[in-house]
Each structure stands twice: as structure tokens, then as C-alpha cells.
Design brief:
heterodimer, A: six-stranded mixed β-sheet, B: seven-stranded antiparallel β-sheet, 21 strands
Chain lengths: 330, 526
């Protein structure tokens, strides 16, 4: 008798509801945790997601026939009760809580535990089966406080008034969070942005995230960008696009920046360890907190987290999901 | 400790030389004594701690963390010190990632000095608990005896000099009169004391350098000619009691060439070219390739010294005993040098012979006919030139042999660094085998103009056929005329050849790729 929840390489299948969670191939019925491309694909028949995630998918894939699921509300689907609970990862991100036959399963998608001014905080839900990510599932990944990282960015800016600091940040989530963290620390200067960020920033603003003045960098002269923080997707850091900038200090906001060689490979001069994923202590702390009878690990450095679970009396298994983890997302 | 660990982080990530100098200067101007002195010692490679072994560091980590997780982490990160620095767990109840300020760099050095090797892991562990990840990394690097932040001792001294508006050569002159943490040096730099007296210590004097010859000829009654040897420029400083060897950058390379240092017992400062004797040339100087076997080694085995015996071909004499000869005209210094060389060990030292040529045309012929692998060209020195630091117009000229050239086909391209990081500016190129296969023969990232670089960048982007990480493979259609100083056998390339100092001479858009040179043709230039 197979379990009512089945992990497959292309996603997690919820048999009684005949629906797939974050499927990597087009499916008739898809439950989507959040808008990043490795979780939300185009081409599904019908999508259940938060209103924010649906808007992000509409922006990225044009169309998305979907049902908006508000946080905290129960919906019924083929005998399964489904609830979307904030995951604290990016705007609209949700854990999907599924209850059926007296058993509760939580699929986190991606998540983090530290405060993020652009989205609702993660809510731990005690459960029987906890399906977790493990992007930073090694004890070397301990993200420092966000405040101290943002302060280093501002210090570099102020020490180099004739230059600009070009920060590479993933277009969905990281860029907006970084901008809000800067605003929260009293930095209200215009922040020129790369064209690839414009529509997503506008979408965030529509949902009430007050990002402030974000002029398109393309329209500015090098002189206008002196002394400014400029935000671009990581792929633009070393590309022709950056030639227009006045002697930029290259920074990148990512959990991967914790490892020197990773930063050096990308020619990053100012690595900022700011991540939208749980670090090692958050991953292990969350498993302790929700105390599942079984933990499924979806993607990342699952071996190490698996080892930790086994040495701490948590039953666990690693799922082999395909196509997860875009490195720029960290 | 935080100021020092932040300095090290900055030096790791900053790519431009000026950026690094600014970081060092800022630290030296603001850090307290004696921390900054110990930092200067660490950056110049003069901090001599009883090194803790890597195995002891790993043992210490295993005692604090799950050994399986430790090994997985080490696999992922690569570097042992970095792995341990990152995963080091704090004792319960302490906030993460906090350098609590209780441990200064000087306290750290004192403690490591006072610790036995057996007790070192325990002492290290106690210190680790008070640091953040950067601080732990700095501590472990200091404790294992290798900072490796990619700067030379000379750069560190230049940064120090910049902090206090000093001339780095003035710093260099008194350097060997000092010991860490250099209290006397900082006192002088801040105007609190006179300059430390370097008398009796083997300190570096800045080299005199040459301009490339651009005029069509010079008058040989004014200029003396000698061969320019293809080794590394070296300064031998002997006090009679001690001898030190310095590279052109002012780095102390005595440790790499103990055979030379031990053979020199005179009280003098000499300028010459360090070469390796090649067995194939009947005991004459071998090519630069042979010398490379000896460069950059901290410890030299007896076998290395036997297989690649080093010697110095002398060009000039700066100091003879207590007498500073630098203000004398070259001709007089040359006479003093000729008198000095016979007193030296003939196996290790000889004199760079002058080239006898009646006129400039004959000299040009001699230069063109020189086929010795160790000859890089001709030096022209004004007979009345004093020995002055740096490049001074019209005193010394270098007249390199005309470069060799080959028509090669671009195969791969990579992005450059710094200002060039958005351009594909590093090119690997190849020549044809008899079977019609293209094999790489070299890599070049200079020789083109800014306009040509833009064109080459566009070519790479428009003709990419494959990507391997940062490397792009391009259509094999573009011929580059590559100039190089010489070519040698090499195991590094599949072609078995390696060029010395290759650069792009011309972009041959007019030439079809199949007409580029063959490997067999290049081999004839060996």
C-alpha cells in the first residue's frame, strides 16, 4: 500500500487530491510553494498558490490559470485538507500543510527563519512528515546577522564616494529584501537598478513593499551613479552591462559568499552573506521544533542533514528531486 | 583582532594593487601598537611562530564537532583552516559570529609563542571561542604559518610607507635593523624617534632599471654594450658575516638559493643575473625554463641544487666594503667589479662580458646572430652613468632581441580581471599538427589596443561554440599573429611547447585559419 504522499523525481504527488507539489514538468493540477523558477514552472493546467505567487508566475510566464489560496485558510481537495502557511522565503512563499487520514505533512518549499521585511515570517507547524530543503545543509553555513552585512555594504559605499557598489542579487526576493534592509538602516538615496529587476520591483510595490526611489541604471550617466548602490542580477556583475558603471566595487548578496573560493570564483570583492534560505542552525533547529516522526530532505546538501537527523534520533530520508537549486538564488 | 582579520579578508578579495595598498595603509595608520607591528611581520613573512601542524588543527575540530560532518564540510570547502573557521561551534549560550574584542593580535602572538606544540590545540581552541569566522580563519592561518593573501613583502612595506608618507626605499634601508613588532620603525614613521640605523645589516638597495631602446642607434663611444641575460635580476648583499639575496621587487629570496648565499662571504653589494647552469650548453647558462624549477620554493632539496645549479652573472657593484660606489660613473664601477670578481667562487659567480663592437651596425649584427637560449638581448649603459634607483632617461637601455612570431588560431577565451572583467581578454591559441588537428601552444592577454580588445570581445561572444565554466570555446576561424621571446619544451600543453612572454602582435582577419602555422614549424624555433 503506497503512502498517500509520493515523492517522485519531478515533484511530490498527493494521490487523493491528484495534485503535484512544485512539479518540474507541466501537470494538470499543481500546488506551488513560491515563485522561484525551480519551484514554479509554466504550463500547468491549474495552479493553487498564494495571490502573490500567482502574480509572480503571471509576470514570468504570462498566463497562469489559478486559484489564490490565502495564508491560513483550509481548502479541501479529494479528502485532503490543505493549508498554506508563511515560509519566510520570498514574497508570497508558503509551506503547504496537508492533512489526511489522521496524518499531517508539511512541505516547506524553501524557507528561512530570520526576519525579512518583504514577507511574512515562517510559522512552525508540528507535523508527522516534514519535507525540508537543505540548500545550506552543512555546518560551515552559518549566516551572520543581516544587519552587520548591510553595515559592511554601507561602509564600503561611504569609504568610496567616487565609485559605486554594484550588488548582485537574485531578481526575485533577494534584490527587494536587500533594498528594504538598506531603507531600514536609513539609506534613502536612489538605488539604480538593472532592467531585469524593474518589473519584479514594481510587483513588490503593488503588494505594499515600499522600495523607494529605484531609477533604471540604463538611463543614468556614470557621474549620476557615483556614490550609489546599484543592484543587478548576479549574471550582470561581470557582463558588458557593468561597463557603464563608475569603477564599481563588485558585491554579491548570497549565502554562498560564506565560502571564500566561491566569492573569488565570481570576482566578488565585497561578499555579503545574506541568504533567503535557512542556514545549518535554522535547518536543525526547525526540525527539533516541529519534531516530525519522519523528515524528507528534498534538495541541497542532503547527505549532511541526513547524517545529523540520524545521529539525533530523527528518522529521515533524502529525496532525489530533479532540477532544483539555482545557484544564484542562495 | 577584528581589524586584522578584516584586513586579511580585504586583501583576499581586493584585486587592484592600489586597493590593497590603501587597505594596508589604513590599517597601519589606525591599528594600535604592538598589533600593527605583528601584522606587518605577518604580511612580510617575518612572523616566526612555532607552526601548529594541520593534523593537530583537524584533531581539534573533530573533538568539537561530528567527525562525519567535519569531513563532509572539508570536502565541500577545500581549505582546512577555512572549514574549521566556518564550522567552529561556540560554547552554549554565546552569540554567533561575534569577535568579542577580548583577544588582540599581540596577545594571540604572545600566547602562541609561549605554547608548546603539544598544548597548542587546546590554547587555539580557547582563542577560537572569542572570535568570529574571519578571526578564526586569521588565527588558524597564523598558527599554521601561511597567510597566503597574495601580497609580497615589498607590497606590505609599500603600504606601510604610504600610511606615513615615507619613501618605501627608506623603509627598506632600515628594515633589517629591525625585529618584530617594529616599535622603532613605527616611532620613526610617526616622527617620535630618528630613523633606525641600518649600519651593519644586509639591507636591500633599489635597483637601477633600463628603458627600452627606441632610438635607431646610439653612439658606442658614449655607451657600453653587454648581453642581457634571461634569468632573474638579483642583488647580493653581504656584510661579511651575513649574505642576503633580493629579487627585483625587493623580496628576500635567500631561502630559495642557499647555494649562492653560502658561497658569498664578501662585504659588498652586487647586481647581477641569477641563472642556472645547463648541462647541454657545456656549463653555460641554461634557458629561463631551467631556472623556473628553482623559483618560488621555500625549501630547496639537495637534489634540486644539484640538478639545477645556480650561479650569478655579475653586472655591477654598488657597495665595496664600507664604500658606496653608486655615485661613481659606470666605467669606474665596472673596473671595481672586474677587480672584485676574481676574489669570488668561480663556480658561483662570473662577470657579464662586454660586447666588443666597432660601431652600432656591427652590434646589431652580433645581436641578430646571438642564438644562446639565455640571451634576451643587449644592454646599453652610458659609460658615465651613476647607479640610480628606478628608470632614468638616457642612462640605461635594454635592446631586446626581435621577438619571434607565429600565426596561431584562437581556440578558447576567458574573461580578464579588474577593469577587464567584462571583456574576454585572455586567449588560448593553437597551431596545426600534420594530421590537421589544432593543439594549444600558448595563452596571451596583452599586446592589443583597447579598440582591438573590443573587437576581440565581440568576436568571442559572437563565435562561441561551447562553454566550460568561465571558459568559452570559439569557432576556429580567427588567426592571431603572436609574438614571443622564445619557445621551450613543456609538458603543460598537449603540443609539448610553451612560449615565453607571448602577446598578440596583430589580428590577422585577412588570413584563413588553415594557413596558420604548424606545430612542426614552431619546433624548429626551439
Amino acid at each position: 500500500m503506497p503512502h498517500w504522499i509520493e515523492p517522485h523525481p519531478t515533484g511530490i504527488y498527493v494521490r487523493p487530491a491528484d495534485a503535484w507539489i512544485d512539479p518540474s514538468v507541466p501537470r494538470q493540477r499543481a500546488l506551488v510553494t513560491h515563485g522561484h523558477a525551480d519551484h514554479a514552472r509554466g504550463g500547468h493546467g491549474h495552479v493553487w498558490a498564494t495571490q502573490e505567487t500567482l502574480a509572480i508566475m503571471a509576470l514570468r510566464y504570462g498566463t497562469a490559470s489559478g486559484t489564490a489560496v490565502p495564508y491560513g485558510e483550509d481548502i479541501r481537495m479529494g479528502g485532503v485538507t490543505i493549508r498554506y502557511v508563511p515560509a519566510g522565503h520570498v514574497l508570497g512563499s508558503a509551506q503547504i500543510v496537508l492533512s489526511h487520514a489522521g496524518e499531517r505533512v508539511v512541505v516547506t518549499g524553501d524557507y528561512k527563519r530570520r526576519p525579512d521585511p518583504t514577507c511574512k515570517p515562517f510559522e512552525p507547524v508540528p507535523c508527522d512528515i516534514f519535507v525540508t530543503e537543505a540548500t545550506f545543509g552543512l555546518p560551515v553555513f552559518r549566516h551572520p546577522g543581516t544587519g552587520s552585512e548591510v553595515d559592511r555594504l554601507l561602509a564600503a559605499l561611504h569609504a568610496n564616494p567616487d565609485r559605486c557598489v554594484l550588488v548582485g542579487a537574485y531578481a526575485l526576493g533577494k534584490a527587494q529584501r536587500l533594498i528594504m534592509e538598506l531603507r531600514g538602516r536609513g539609506h534613502h538615496d536612489p538605488i539604480p537598478i538593472h532592467g531585469a529587476l524593474e518589473r519584479m520591483c514594481a510587483l513588490y510595490a503593488d503588494f505594499g513593499v515600499e522600495l523607494g526611489n529605484l531609477p533604471p541604471a540604463t538611463g543614468l550617466s556614470p557621474r549620476d551613479m557615483r556614490g550609489r548602490i546599484v543592484v543587478a542580477p548576479p549574471s550582470a556583475l561581470n557582463d558588458r552591462w557593468s561597463r557603464r558603471l563608475p569603477d564599481p566595487i563588485t558585491a554579491m548578496a548570497s549565502g554562498w559568499m560564506r565560502v571564500r573560493q566561491r566569492a573569488r570564483q565570481r570576482n566578488v570583492e565585497l561578499p555579503l552573506v545574506i541568504s533567503d534560505h535557512a542556514d545549518w542552525d535554522e535547518l536543525t533547529g526547525t526540525i527539533r521544533e516541529v519534531a516530525p516522526s519522519e523528515t524528507w530532505i528534498t534538495h541541497g546538501r542532503e547527505e549532511a542533514l541526513l547524517h545529523w537527523c540520524m545521529t539525533h534520533q530523527f528518522r529521515a530520508r533524502a529525496l532525489a528531486l530533479v532540477g532544483r537549486e539555482d545557484e544564484d538564488e542562495g | 583582532m577584528r581589524a586584522f582579520s578584516q584586513l586579511l579578508d580585504g586583501l583576499v578579495y581586493t584585486r587592484s594593487r592600489n586597493g590593497k595598498l590603501d587597505l594596508i595603509a589604513h590599517y597601519m595608520a589606525t591599528a594600535p601598537d604592538p598589533d600593527r607591528g605583528w601584522a606587518l611581520a605577518a604580511l612580510t613573512g617575518n612572523l616566526d611562530l612555532k607552526a601548529v601542524k594541520a593534523s593537530a588543527i583537524a584533531e581539534m575540530a573533530r573533538s568539537r564537532t561530528d567527525p562525519v560532518l567535519f569531513e563532509m564540510s572539508r570536502d565541500y570547502v577545500g581549505d582546512l583552516a577555512e572549514t574549521v573557521a566556518l564550522l567552529w561551534p561556540k560554547p552554549e549560550g554565546q552569540p554567533e559570529e561575534l569577535d568579542d574584542g577580548s583577544l588582540t593580535l599581540s596577545a594571540l602572538v604572545d600566547r602562541l609563542h609561549a605554547t608548546s606544540r603539544a598544548a597548542a590545540p587546546t590554547v587555539l581552541a580557547q582563542m577560537m571561542d572569542h572570535l568570529d569566522a574571519s578571526g578564526r580563519f586569521a588565527l588558524l592561518k597564523l598558527a599554521t604559518g601561511g597567510l597566503r593573501v597574495g601580497i609580497s613583502a615589498r607590497l606590505a612595506k609599500t603600504g606601510f610607507a604610504q600610511a606615513f608618507n615615507l619613501d618605501v626605499d627608506d623603509v627598506e634601508e632600515c628594515w633589517h635593523a629591525l625585529t618584530p613588532p617594529y616599535a622603532a620603525l613605527f616611532a620613526w614613521a610617526e616622527g617620535r624617534a630618528p630613523r633606525p640605523d641600518p649600519a651593519g645589516t644586509p639591507f636591500f638597495r633599489p635597483f637601477m632599471l633600463a628603458h627600452p631602446l627606441e632610438a635607431d642607434s646610439v653612439d658606442l663611444t658614449d655607451y657600453a654594450a653587454e648581453w642581457k641575460w634571461d634569468g632573474i635580476r638579483i642583488q647580493i648583499v653581504g656584510t661579511g658575516a651575513e649574505t642576503r639575496l633580493y629579487s627585483r621587487a625587493g623580496d628576500d629570496i635567500t631561502g630559495s638559493f642557499p647555494d649562492i648565499a653560502q658561497a658569498f662571504g664578501s662585504h659588498a653589494v652586487l647586481d647581477g643575473e641569477l641563472l642556472v647552469r645547463g648541462e647541454f650548453q657545456g656549463g653555460e647558462a641554461a634557458s629561463f625554463n631551467a631556472l623556473q624549477q628553482r623559483l618560488g620554493r621555500k625549501a630547496v632539496s639537495a637534489k634540486m641544487m644539484e640538478d639545477y645549479p645556480a650561479f650569478v652573472r655579475l653586472y655591477d657593484i654598488l657597495i665595496d666594503g664600507e664604500e658606496d660606489l653608486r655615485a661613481l660613473p659606470w666605467a669606474q664601477r665596472r673596473a671595481r667589479l672586474e677587480a672584485t670578481v676574481p676574489t669570488l667562487d668561480p663556480h658561483r659567480f662570473d662577470i657579464s662580458a662586454l660586447i666588443e663592437a666597432p660601431d652600432f651596425e656591427s652590434l646589431a649584427e652580433l645581436r641578430a646572430g646571438a642564438r644562446d637560449a639565455a640571451i634576451e638581448g643587449v644592454m646599453l649603459k652610458r659609460r658615465d652613468s651613476p647607479y640610480v634607483a628606478g628608470r632614468k632617461a638616457a642612462l640605461w637601455y635594454k635592446w631586446k632581441r626581435d621577438p619571434l612570431t607565429a600565426d596561431c588560431v584562437m581556440m578558447y577565451a576567458q574573461r580578464g580581471h579588474g577593469k577587464r572583467s567584462s571583456f574576454y581578454s585572455d586567449y588560448t591559441f593553437g597551431c596545426w599538427t600534420e594530421e590537421g588537428e589544432l593543439l594549444p601552444v600558448g595563452k596571451a592577454y596583452s599586446g592589443f589596443t583597447d579598440e582591438e580588445l573590443k573587437w576581440l570581445d565581440r568576436f568571442v561572444r559572437g563565435n562561441t561554440v561551447n562553454r566550460f565554466g568561465p571558459v568559452r570555446e570559439v569557432e576556429k576561424t580567427l588567426v592571431l599573429e603572436v609574438a614571443f621571446d622564445s619557445i621551450h619544451e613543456s609538458k603543460r600543453h598537449k603540443s609539448g611547447l610553451a612560449m615565453r612572454f607571448p602577446r598578440i602582435a596583430r589580428i590577422r582577419r585577412d588570413k584563413p585559419a588553415h594557413e596558420a602555422d604548424r606545430i612542426a614549424g614552431l619546433r624548429r624555433l626551439l
